[in-house]
Amino acid sequence: QVQLVESGGGLVQPGGSLRLSCAASGSIFTIYAMDWFRQAPGKLRELVATTSSGGATYYTDSVKGRFTISRDNAKNTVYLQMNSLKPEDTAVYYCNADIATSLTDPGRRFWGQGTQVNVSS
After folding, report:
1. Backbone angles phi, psi at 9, to 5 degrees
2. Contact (Cβ atoms closer than 8 angstroms) between residue 18 and residue 12
3. What is the per-residue DSSP string for 8-55?
4. Is-contact 2 102, C-beta < 8 A?
5. CA distances from 30 to 23, 24, 60, 61 (A)
6. How far apart are CA 56 and CA 75, in angstroms?
7. Can you list the pairs that 42-45 forms with residues at least 24 positions away whose Cβ atoms lie under 8 Å?
8. Is 74 helix (H, G, I), strand (E, B) or coil?
């Protein structure tokens, strides 16, 4: 079994910052890509940022220059540093990771339970 547990969400004023964390635990052989998605009320879930096992990163246009994704492979943890937050960043943020549980497992996607981020004055 593999679990992803997010933390760090909350209420912040526009222009403020939050740092989200997502720790993977359980039967982990290796972790490939680790991603952050978000879903606002009434909207589809969207990819916010992703990082490969080698450290390459991708950001959706709306967060470029404001958000930074990083990972600590020793801790099986991915982070999302969110600066200059805007009301439109309000959403439930989900961690997603491509994880192999054994040498012969090609890997599959696991989701965290989500953490709420509210940006409001």
Report:
1. -70, 175
2. yes
3. --EEE-TT--EEEEEEEEES-SEEEEEEEEEE-TTS--EEEEEE-TT-
4. no
5. 14, 11, 26, 29
6. 18
7. 43/91, 45/94
8. helix
Residue type, 113: Q
Write out the two tokens for 114: 């989500």
Residue appearing with tokens 């994880």? 99
> pLDDT 10s digit of each residue in the chain, 121 long?
899 999 999 999 999 999 999 999 999 999 999 999 999 999 999 999 999 998 899 999 999 999 999 999 999 999 999 999 999 999 999 999 999 999 999 999 999 999 999 999 9
Place of tokens 């952050």: 36
Q: How many residues does the chain have?
A: 121
Residue carrying structure tokens 């222009």: 15
